[in-house]
Structure formats: structure tokens, C-alpha cells
């Protein structure tokens, strides 16, 4: 930390020293914002945590979507300073978009850290104001009140992070958990460990020795060193030579793990981000690859109505591809899911609809009913997230 403190001070950004632990590139440090996903690992009394630091700036929401799609739970940090919370929460603010995105990507447990409360004198009224505003919005976004934890803190000063704030006389009104205690209170999500192997690749690089290495998330199933696998959509088959997590060699990993695999026998040039590793199996048991499917989408705030042929960017796990909403199949009742109108002419804000989507190239997807992680996606247009959806039928 001394190195980060010294270097950040030289650039006149001494308060960014802690951010530099995960913001490693020169551009991130110069601009003072997170641009790409960084990861690290730490242990609590109860869990070993894989932390994914995702960007908050609106220019890098695609990277935030990639990070959130790999998350089991979420930590939302909000600025409690005067004007800071309002800038993030009011119309067009990123706090709102982040809340909607993580819920739409399947995250159900949320920890809200109300940061920088020291800048307003640890005011209980300010904390309650922020919690009240966020509570209404997050419930509307789909979170249950029982799955949200709010706590005040000061990241820069280390208050209420690992120890109760006994020295902060003005925070005596708060009797809730520390940040670490709140993380330990998360419930473990169920893992599809008995499902077919689905390992979604987020990076490909040349390691030491033969073969190459991929990093990514075990979406379902289990894999061991020596297993024969097929990588899709390229279709090449090979063998898993080594497995490791955070540099530690392991004989096997299972659903939920963020791991690196060293693979031999597969052409590295054919393996891209978004490819999926499966066990060798008959074609009907491998992950489907298709450019066309039907999906149920929920439309967010949009500036122009969605009509047939509407161009979008399709975000799914670690990929983003140009796509087109080719057909508007039906308009649905938001509560019951019943069809209320067939072949609508357009879709507007808050519409719940079945549509046909055509992606620019085949992508590895599954029905939401079969695999929730590989069945979810987001749609963006003009730099904004306009819809979330689940895949209902493959074509």
C-alpha cells in the first residue's frame, strides 16, 4: 500500500491509493475510474470470496454486465456525500442502472454500502434518507426486502469495514453489521453441480508449456484434470491438462468456481471469449449454438419504440454481439404472462413481450428453463440498456 500511496500522491490523487489495488492500468489511474473487470480473492470467517471489481462509469457498462453475469451476490457502493447520492440516483444516474442490471442478471442478494457518510458528519437522517430512496427503487427492481442489507461506512478511513465503529461516537446510532459481517451473512446459492459441464470462457491466453490457458466461470457441472472436452462453437475437442484457482493447482472444480483451465489438443485460434467448454458427448447433449431464438423481454426506459428490425447489442455472459429484433411475436400480461396481443406494431417502456432475436453469428445459449445463467441476456441500444430477457425457444 505504501507504494500506491506514494505514486498516487505524486499525481495529486492521494485519495485513490486504495482504488489502485485493483485499477492497475495507466489509463484507469490517470482518469480515476475503473474501466475493466479486476478480480482478487480474500477469506472471511465463513467464506473464501472471489471479488469481481466491475466498472461503475456509464461508458463501461458492457464490462459491468460481464462482471455481474458471473456474480452470485452483489455489493453496491453508493456515495453519501451531499449531491453525490443524488447524482447517481436521479434520472440517468448509474446507481439506478446498476441495481436494475444486477437483478436482471439473476443476483437476488444485495449489500448496499453507504460510503463517505463521514463527509456529512455521520448523519443518521442522511443514512435513512438514502435507504428510503433506494429501498423503494430496489423493491421495484425485483429485490426482496429481506435480501437487502444496508450499512454506513467510510472506505477511505476504514470505518465499519472489518470492525465495529467503537471510536466513532457519532455512529453510535447504528447497531447493524460491519461490511465483513454482512458478507458472511450471505446465503450460499444453489449450484447445478450435477448438471452437464458448462464452462464459460472470459479470457484466452498462452501459458507455459504445451497447450493454452482459458479463464472463466463454471456455470454448471464438474470437471477434472484429464477430462476430454469439446469447445463450442468451434467444435474442437481436447484434454484438460491442468486446473487452478488464483494460481493454486487443483484436481477438480465445480459449478460456481472461477477457474483457469490449461487445454491441449484444441486450436487456440478458434477459441474466443464467450466460447463454452463441455464434456465430450453426442451433439444433442452439448451446449446449443444458434444465431436465432425466441425470448421473453422486459423493456426498460427507451427513447424510441422497438419495431421489427430494431438493431441492438446482445450481451450474454462474456460476449457482446450485434443483433436485430427481427419479429415482435406477442405482448404479454406482466403478472400472468398471458398473451394480450399478437404481433404488436411496436414495444414501448415497461412492455413485456415475446420477440425473435437474430444475432450476427452463432452464440452458445440455452433455454432459461434448462440453464438460468446461459438463458439470460441484456439488450443495449445507443449506449443505454433497453431490455432484459430470457430465452424461451431455440430455432
What would you say this structure looks like, in words?
- The chain has 395 residues and is an alpha+beta fold.
- It is built from 8 helices and 21 strands.
- The strands form 5 sheets. The protein has a 6-stranded antiparallel β-barrel. The chain has a 6-stranded antiparallel β-barrel with strand order 15-19-17-16-20-21. It has a 3-stranded parallel beta sheet with strand order 3-4-5.
- A hairpin with a 2-residue loop joins strand 16 (310-316) and strand 17.
- It starts with a helix and ends with a strand.
Distance between the termini: 53 Å
Mean pLDDT: 87
Give a quick account of the main beta sheet: strands, pairing sense, barrel closure: 6 strands, antiparallel, barrel
Portion of residues within helices = 10-25%
Summed up, the helix count is 8
- Poorly predicted regions: none
Strand order of the largest sheet: 6-7-13-10-9-14
Helix/strand-derived class?
A: alpha+beta
The proportion of strand residues reads 35-45%
| General form | globular
Number of strands: 21
The string of secondary-structure elements, in order, is HHEEHEHHEHEHEEEEEEEEEEEEEEHEE
What is the gyration radius calculated from CA atoms? 22 Å
Q: What is the element layout, followed by pairings?
A:
Layout: H1 2-10, H2 26-31, E1 38-43, E2 48-53, H3 61-69, E3 74-79, H4 84-89, H5 94-104, E4 110-115, H6 124-141, E5 148-152, H7 179-184, E6 198-205, E7 212-220, E8 222-224, E9 228-232, E10 236-245, E11 248-249, E12 252-254, E13 258-264, E14 276-279, E15 289-299, E16 310-316, E17 319-332, E18 339-342, E19 352-364, H8 372-375, E20 376-381, E21 384-394
Parallel strand pairs: 3-4, 4-5
Antiparallel strand pairs: 1-2, 6-7, 6-14, 7-13, 8-12, 9-10, 9-14, 10-11, 10-13, 15-19, 15-21, 16-17, 16-20, 17-18, 17-19, 20-21
Amino acid at each position: 500500500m505504501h507504494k500506491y500511496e506514494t505514486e498516487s500522491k505524486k499525481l495529486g490523487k492521494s485519495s485513490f491509493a486504495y482504488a489502485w489495488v485493483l485499477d492497475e492500468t495507466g489509463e484507469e489511474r490517470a482518469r480515476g475510474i475503473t474501466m475493466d473487470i479486476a478480480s482478487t480473492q480474500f477469506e472471511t470467517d465463513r467464506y473464501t470470496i472471489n471479488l469481481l471489481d466491475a466498472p461503475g462509469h456509464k461508458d463501461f457498462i458492457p464490462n459491468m454486465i460481464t462482471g455481474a453475469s458471473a456474480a452470485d451476490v452483489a455489493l453496491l457502493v453508493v456515495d453519501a456525500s451531499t449531491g453525490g447520492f443524488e447524482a447517481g440516483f436521479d434520472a440517468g444516474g448509474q446507481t439506478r442502472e446498476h441495481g436494475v442490471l444486477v437483478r436482471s442478471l439473476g443476483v437476488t442478494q444485495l449489500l448496499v454500502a453507504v460510503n463517505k457518510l463521514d463527509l456529512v458528519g455521520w448523519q443518521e437522517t442522511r443514512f435513512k434518507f438514502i435507504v428510503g430512496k433506494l429501498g423503494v427503487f430496489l423493491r421495484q427492481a425485483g429485490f426482496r426486502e429481506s435480501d437487502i442489507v444496508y450499512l454506513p461506512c467510510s472506505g477511505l478511513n476504514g470505518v465499519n469495514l472489518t470492525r465495529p465503529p467503537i471510536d466513532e461516537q457519532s455512529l453510535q446510532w447504528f447497531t447493524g453489521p460491519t461490511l465483513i459481517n454482512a458478507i458472511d451473512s450471505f446465503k450460499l446459492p444453489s449450484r447445478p453441480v450435477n448438471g452437464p459441464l458448462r464452462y464459460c470462457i472470459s479470457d484466452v491466453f498462452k501459458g507455459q508449456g504445451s497447450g493454452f490457458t482459458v479463464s472463466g466461470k463454471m456455470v454448471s457441472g464438474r470437471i477434472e484434470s484429464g477430462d476430454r472436452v469439446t469447445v463450442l462453437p468451434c467444435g474442437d475437442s481436447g484434454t484438460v491438462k491442468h486446473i487452478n484457482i488464483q494460481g493454486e493447482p487443483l484436481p477438480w472444480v465445480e459449478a460456481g468456481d472461477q477457474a483457469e483451465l490449461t487445454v491441449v489438443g484444441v486450436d487456440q485460434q478458434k477459441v474466443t471469449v464467450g466460447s463454452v467448454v463441455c464434456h465430450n458427448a453426442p451433439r444433442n447433449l452439448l451446449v446449443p449454438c444458434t444465431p436465432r431464438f425466441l425470448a421473453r423481454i422486459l423493456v426498460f426506459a427507451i427513447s424510441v419504440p422497438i419495431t421489427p428490425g430494431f438493431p441492438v447489442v446482445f450481451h450474454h455472459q462474456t460476449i457482446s454481439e450485434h443483433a436485430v429484433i427481427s419479429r415482435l411475436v406477442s405482448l404479454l400480461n406482466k403478472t400472468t404472462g398471458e398473451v394480450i396481443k399478437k404481433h404488436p406494431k411496436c414495444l414501448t417502456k415497461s412492455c413485456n413481450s415475446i420477440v425473435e432475436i437474430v444475432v450476427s453469428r452463432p452464440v452458445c445459449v440455452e433455454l432459461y428453463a434448462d440453464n438460468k445463467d446461459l438463458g439470460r441476456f441484456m439488450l443495449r441500444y445507443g449506449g443505454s440498456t433497453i431490455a432484459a430477457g430470457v430465452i424461451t425457444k431455440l430455432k
